Structures are given as structure tokens and as C-alpha cells.
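Hi L.,

As promised, Metallophosphoesterase family protein:
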Amino acid sequence: MRLGVIADVHGNLPALEAVLASLAGLSVDRIVNLGDCASGPLWPAETMRLLRATPMSHVRGNHDRALGAASPDGLGASDSYAWRNLDAEARGWLAGLPFELTIGGARCVHASPKDDDTYLLDAIEDGRLVAATPAAVEALIGPAHPAVILCGHSHQPRLLRLDDGRVVVNPGSVGNPAYHATEPSIHVSESGAPDARFAIVEIADAVTVEHHAIAYDWEHAARRAEANGRADWAHALRTGQVLTSR
């Protein structure tokens, strides 16, 4: 099984278009989307239409779950923008996605098997995301999971091979290369580059992982963020770095 793995599109339509065009030439058997599809000040409705029109499997991200709220009151700025730009049917579709799937021997979750808001391959140190220890990852996934675990959420491309042979992969973010978060504590995630990220995971006698970073028109996306009053997103889209960390 050769899987194309995407995550954390966050409404970035041109990044998603570029990733899907690249995947079309890479002979994948199936595409899996690990969630957080629309939240952000970009193109939530257009992104949703493309995701739903493209054959792939989906799991629900924490922001997808948040968009199932009855109103945008109390949502963060990115979720609120997406909520207001999606119709009720699209919001319900996102909120109704499964928490996890098993595809071709791979367990697919948004964040971790524990919940959709706990980092699996990352830890917070000095206000930044760093690679989690193998022991911490093993504690979250437990002993009885498939040979491959796919996760997103942190926007950090990562690969960990555990001593028992299991492989844990985060493809990185298609559409949001850096962000500032306040939960579970204040921290930043920075990929260091504006490229759109995805992975190819081939599951056979051995597990082979390819991380891809591809160029797209991130200036177009940054201008869209600026037009919607989000200078923080515009800076992240252009640089892969968080504005407030400088």
C-alpha cells in the first residue's frame, strides 16, 4: 500500500492544489487527510469543495470538531472566519468525520490516539516544539497498535522508528507552516520555510517514508491573509516563522 498523507490544510487552497497535483504524479494507492481542513483566514469554502471532490479518506482534526459549534461565538479568529464562510452542511460534514481510521495497516489520527489535541511526536520546551522522546511516544500509542501510525496537528514533518519496529509519521502541514498557540502552554511551531508539506508512506515488507516540501504561490496566500486582517498568518505563510517570535 502506497499512501499519500496530507494534514493541516487550514483553508490554503493554492497549497492544496499544488500538493494534489504533485501527488497525481506519484502513483499513490490512496490519499489520507489527517484533518484541520478549513480553519484559517484564507479559502475555507473553496478548500472544502476541493477536498470533498478529490477521492481520499479523512479523519477529524480539533479545528474540524470546533467548526461543529452552533455559532461562531467563543471560537478563535481562524475558526470563526471559517465558520462564517462555510454553510451548515459543510460544517456538519467536518464535525462528523471519524476520530481515526485504519488504512492499509496504518492507524490514522489527527493528533494522537489519546485525543485530537495532544501532540504525539512533539513536546514543548522553552516555548517551542521539539521532537518528543521515543518513551513519551510509546506511552501515548500503547503496545497494541499497527506497524504504522500517522498523525498531524503539530505542523512539524517528523519520522520516528521505535525499537519494536513501529513507524510514526507526521507529514507536516499543507497550508500553515507556522503558528503561535496558548494551549496547553504558550508555544510556537515553526517549519522554517513556506513550502507545502506532505508525505508518501509505502507499507510493504518494510515501511518507506518520503517527506515532500513543494513550492506554490505562497505570496498569493499571504496577500489573502492580509486582506482578511491577519498579518500574523501572512508572515507565517511567507517565511515559515512566527511573527511574534522575532
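The first strand starts at residue 2 and ends at 6.

Thanks again for sending the construct details.

K.
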